[in-house]
């Protein structure tokens, strides 16, 4: 194991140094926050993902640069046009947008982010994941939404808090399904149990030698519109009385997201974790999935890096994301200067 210590003024700066120094597979071993900044000790196992080359090829198209224009500072007022700009940008359905307008109109807030935080608390539901849970956590959802990365992030966070973890995967069909989670587990000195059937899953749970503080179960992707796949997933859930937690990416069509949330709610899900917020600019789908009668937002993932774990799902955190709109005017000005 390769250990290295990093020091910076803020947590964001020190995490940037960890990624630059050890790459995306770095595991945080210790965090010390004092009056002179933040000190992080990180580790990297041999054979981890190599760092990118110094002279990477330049792509033909580069990602669009965004400049944050919100949230508005405390000293600046906002009006209905600012509220409309946020709602229009995220393309919220009319009824839900109207709920926000009504709630914000009744709020005495000093800035836009604060107003949306209070409104979110009345329009959608939040239920953050905690370290204390008696039931196994089973991460479920459509293929390719980030269940394995989320499992690794939850594992890293639990280990930082001194928890004993039991990792299991039922994703034994997809090529590389077991290997990906096993790779992350080895970096954290953990082992992964596998179960191809719900009977094997129940047997693995019974055979575990010590009682784990937290059991995390990664699953294969489930098509929410395929009844046979849903029945198979339900067998796994019922075999060990797990709490199924949906993993859903940002950027989905709002009505699609709401329908998917409704399907998994009937499968026993009460909460969902939002992923890939760094790769989307419109979050209406997440809001619709968290409306009353569907699911509660439990966590937020804005990075594919394990070292940057899940953020707690709170009205304040989510409001900052909603009100941080891309400054399109700045983009146009930049293009005109280059012509």
Which descriptor suits the 3D outline? globular
Q: In percent, how much strand structure appears in the residues? A: 15-25%
Distance between the termini: 51 Å
Which CATH-level-2 architecture of the domain at 137-323? 3-Layer(aba) Sandwich
Q: What is the gyration radius calculated from CA atoms?
A: 21 Å
Low-confidence blocks of residues = 72-76, 328-336
Contiguous helical run count: 12
**Main CATH class of the domain at 137-323:** Alpha Beta
What does this structure look like?
This protein is α/β, with parallel strands linked by helices and 339 residues long. Among the domains are: 2-44; 137-323, 3-Layer(aba) Sandwich (Rossmann fold), CATH 3.40.50.300. Helices cover 40% and strands 17% of the residues. The chain is built from 12 helices and 11 strands. The strands form 2 sheets. The chain has an 8-stranded mixed β-sheet with strand order 6-5-7-4-8-9-10-11, with helices on both faces. Strands 1-3-2 form a 3-stranded antiparallel β-sheet, with helices on one face. Helix 2 (80-89) runs antiparallel to helix 3 (94-105), helix 4 packs across helix 11 (315-323) and helix 5 packs parallel to helix 6. The protein is globular and about 60 Å long. It starts with a strand and ends with a helix. Mean pLDDT is 83; it is low at 72-76 and 328-336.
